[in-house]
Amino acid sequence: MAPTILSRRRRAPQELPVAPRVVAYARVSTAEQSTNGVSLDEQERRIRAHCMAEDWPLTEMFVERGISGSMTLRDRPIGRQLLRVLRPGDVLIAAKLDRLFRSARDALDQFAAFKKLAVRVYCLDLGRDDVNANGISTLLTTILAAVAEFERARIAERIRDAKAQLRFEGKHQGGSRPFGWRFGPPAGRGKGPTLVADEIEQAAIADMAAMRERGVSLMQVRDAMRERGFPISHETVRRALRRAETAGRMAA
After folding, report:
1. Which domain holds residue 195?
2. Which residues are catalytic?
3. Which letter does DSSP use for residue 124 in this model?
4. Which of 144, 174, 192, 196 is the most exposed place for a label (fewest CB within 10 A)?
């Protein structure tokens, strides 16, 4: 009887742990200053320090310049690029929660998509843990995303108030010359010009307001102003009346 030859099963080589592919995202908007911990340099410093502490090689840094936080990540040019390159098992790092997301709802939706893709997300202002790791992190993320949304609303409110104050003080807010005003001397060194009332156009605005009180439509007001030699649109009529109304309320 021939001896039985036992086949020796070849053992697979031991797999070495693979370091995660790490990508980072940083953003500043046009309305923000490079201070208060939101500048690109500060965001990158925090991100690289975290990667060094975790011994993670940073694969790529996606930087969004001059993009408002009111846009979702997928609607931002660099944000779209980032989402296209993410693969299962990747690590995504941002210095702050509000650099990535526009609102609490946006954050929750995107976190769910990252979790489904098995992408770990680290927002360093939340700590050193993956935000999708457990229920407590998700709760904290929801709260902080709501706070970030509230802060953005307050910033927008302050900008509106500042513009209203500029209108009241007769200072230019940027852009084209508003109907009813002409440019005067600068408001100060390095500042925009003041606005000086144009008597002829101010009289036209008073007539516009009187016509609107009689129920005349914006289009009809526009046509009447064009017949008087003012080449304006109905939107110009709307803005001029709104500006006059705001100035009147603030002066009262």
Report:
1. 181-251
2. 29
3. G
4. 174
